[in-house]
UniProtKB/TrEMBL annotation:
It comes from Clavibacter michiganensis. Residues 447-524 form the Non-reducing end beta-L-arabinofuranosidase-like GH127 middle domain. GO terms for biological process: carbohydrate metabolic process. Residues 527-632 form the Non-reducing end beta-L-arabinofuranosidase-like GH127 C-terminal domain. This is Glycoside hydrolase family 127 protein. Residues 17-415 form the Non-reducing end beta-L-arabinofuranosidase-like GH127 catalytic domain. SUPFAM superfamilies: Six-hairpin glycosidases (SSF48208).
């Protein structure tokens, strides 16, 4: 077993043990609490999600969407996480009301799905490829686990245990069971969470069944379509019956999971599957499953990931196409997919700790995820292009509204992504300022984190309440930092020492600490150029700008229109400054002249000096629907 897997086990830090007090993140999390969560509840109420649970539908009322239940579930999850850091009796009571509606909608046998109960009760579990039944169940299970952890209540947990037990009797390899799995992965990772929350092994075994059965022959979705005799919910929209081979890849069902070597198909589905695979590799100490995860990670991050951490280049399949096909203006890069990438990275860090996972998790967080939410917390991007000619704005809601509540649950649970804890061990995966409580036997150590990865690059860990024995502090040294130093109470430590900076890319100090001692990691946050792999056709001759974990972009609000006419000289100095609380990068560039006759000319194109202003990509489209470009021509 690899050396970095023999460390004491750590788990994502419980939210109750993390108090975030970060000048960058705290205002955004507060906006989610005060604006996003109430706004999303209003949407669920007015559009009809909650009314559908009451089963009082009349002719002419909205038809429940097949995955409305998952929107409700993710809202419950986000609201539950929010209660941990900000107790709110009104929100707590509202959660109770919504959960009571869910409980009242549950069938006598434990079944719970609004669409099939209200619209098509005779079609239960007949269209797993398209109808998202187990996907909805998975999100409701995640919500139940989160609500129980936040409040101690078992109201939703009891409901979802009944449903999970029903699913366990319906699906499997036994006589009379359906030997199948859902078209949209999610139930698998949710069952792992349910097993951990309840201590019931059967839920882990069911998760393992769903993962192991996927992609085996004969292909379940082909058999299901034959039995059903009618097109699925989506018909041939995704080349289902018409092109079964492509449909299998879209669903990650083209091969058994250990034989899948490329990230293919629908990007969110893939991320949820890979997350479950990583979970099971850890829970079952399965080296072959871990090897499959490593191979998929390598393929995705070196051939099919945008510079922003976005994934999925095509709107046609909401997913992957071919290696090095990463167009800018037509990039899909769904917000949920970037969140899914973070979920997978978090799980890989548990089973295979290495900074490569933390680097990507941080990249996706600051760019591919955060761009999905407006500054006021009430508008959202579903897809995230890396260039726009104008006219693109975030939307208040979508017919398929998976991304808004997904953003809310991610940001309200940020502490569990940023930090991991174990007995006498704190791991900082993503530096975020705040207080973290670390278990040390029967006692608790308290560590204050002061992180500024956007400006000074200083990441300080101060031991506020030291334990009697040893405490290990681990901090990821990001690959983006060209030069990094480490100091303990002002005394320099040698990061070339293999005991301090191991192959996993984490600076590690284990010692008996005194109250007030400080470990400081100094990162290099100078603006830097990012140049593309030559195989990236759409980016040839272009350069991107980044500072710390944040990718920057040109925006019309600062640089005027026709951004494609701007270029950045290869030798131009890059300067960082603060503009009204936003870290921007500036440089002296050039703007092409339009003077001249004819559409095509034999003479050279002339240009004039221009100041280029690059703002964080995540902040674009908050000042109007103007042009934007991440990649700039390099002169």
């Amino acid at each position: 077993m690899d050396a970095h897997r023999t460390h004491r086990a750590t788990t994502p830090a419980p939210l109750a043990d993390v108090d975030i007090a970060d000048p960058f993140w705290s205002p955004r999390i507060e906006t989610v609490r005060t604006e996003t969560i109430p706004f999303q509840y209003h949407q669920l109420e007015t559009i009809g999600h909650l009314e559908s649970l009451r089963h009082r539908r009349q002719d002419g009322d909205p038809v429940p969407h097949i995955f409305w239940d998952s929107d409700i579930a993710k809202w419950i999850e986000a609201a539950s996480y929010s209660l941990v850091s900000h107790p709110d009796p009104e929100l707590d009571a509202r959660l109770d009301d919504v959960i009571a509606l869910l409980a009242s909608a549950q069938g006598d046998d434990g079944y719970l799905n609004t669409y099939f109960t209200v619209i098509a009760p005779e079609e239960r579990f007949t269209d797993l490829r398209d109808a998202h039944e187990l996907y909805c169940a998975g999100h409701l299970i995640e919500a139940a686990v989160a609500h129980h952890a936040a409040t101690g209540k078992t109201t939703l947990l009891d409901v979802m245990r009944r449903y999970a037990d029903l699913i366990g009797t319906v699906f499997g390899r036994g006589e009379g069971q359906i030997r199948g799995y859902d078209g949209h992965e999610e139930i698998e990772l949710a069952l792992v969470k349910l097993a951990a929350a309840t201590g019931e092994r059967r839920y882990l075994d069911l998760a393992s069944y769903f993962v192991e059965e996927r992609g085996t022959e004969p292909y379940f979705f082909d058999l299901e379509a034959e039995r059903r005799g009618t097109p699925g919910y989506f018909g041939d929209q995704f080349s289902g019956e018409a092109h079964p081979g492509r449909s299998r890849e879209y669903l990650q069902a083209h091969a058994p999971v250990r034989d899948q070597h490329e990230a293919v198909g629908h990007s969110v589905r893939a991320m949820y599957l890979y997350s479950a695979m990583a979970d099971l590799a850890r829970e079952q100490d399965d080296e072959s499953l871990l090897a499959a995860c490593r191979g998929l990670w390598e393929h995705l991050t070196t051939r099919r990931m945008y510079v922003t951490g976005g994934i999925g280049s095509s709107a046609v399949n909401e997913g992957f196409t071919r290696d090095f096909d990463l167009p800018d203006e037509t990039a899909y890069a769904e917000t949920c997919a970037a969140i899914g990438l973070m979920m997978w990275a978090q799980r890989m860090l548990r089973v295979d700790r290495h900074r490569r996972y933390g680097d990507v998790m941080e990249l996706a967080l600051y760019n591919g995820v955060l761009a999905g939410l407006s500054d006021d917390g009430t508008c959202f991007f579903y897809d995230n292009p890396l260039a726009s000619r104008g006219g693109i704005e975030r939307s208040a809601w979508f017919d398929v509204a998976c991304c808004p509540p997904n953003l809310a649950r991610l940001l309200t649970s940020l502490g569990s992504y940023a930090f991991a804890t174990g007995d006498a061990e704190l791991v900082v995966h993503v530096p975020v300022s705040g207080i973290v409580r670390v278990p040390v036997g029967d006692a608790v150590a308290v560590v204050a984190v002061d992180a500024d990865v956007h400006g000074s690059g200083r990441v300080a860990l101060r031991v506020v309440d030291a334990p009697d024995g040893e405490l290990t502090l681990r901090v990821r040294v990001p690959a983006w930092s060209a030069t990094t130093t480490l100091h303990l109470d002002g005394r320099p430590l040698d990061l070339d020492d293999g005991d301090l900076l191991g192959e996993d890319g984490y600076a590690t100090v284990t010692r008996r600490w005194q109250d007030g001692e400080v470990l400081v990691l100094q990162l290099d946050t100078a603006p830097r150029r990012l140049r593309p792999d030559p195989r990236l056709v759409d980016h040839a001759g272009r350069v991107a700008i980044a500072r710390g974990p944040m990718v920057h972009a040109l925006e019309e609000a600062d640089n005027g229109a026709m951004l494609h006419m701007l270029s950045l000289p290869a030798d131009a100095d890059l300067s960082a400054r603060d503009a009204d609380g936003t870290h921007v990068v500036t440089a002296r560039g050039r703007r092409a002249d339009v003077a001249g006759d004819g559409l095509y000319r034999s003479g050279p194109v002339t240009s004039e000096d221009a100041e280029l202003v690059f703002v964080p990509y995540s902040s674009w489209a908050n000042r109007g629907a103007g042009e934007m470009r991440v990649w700039t021509r390099e002169a």
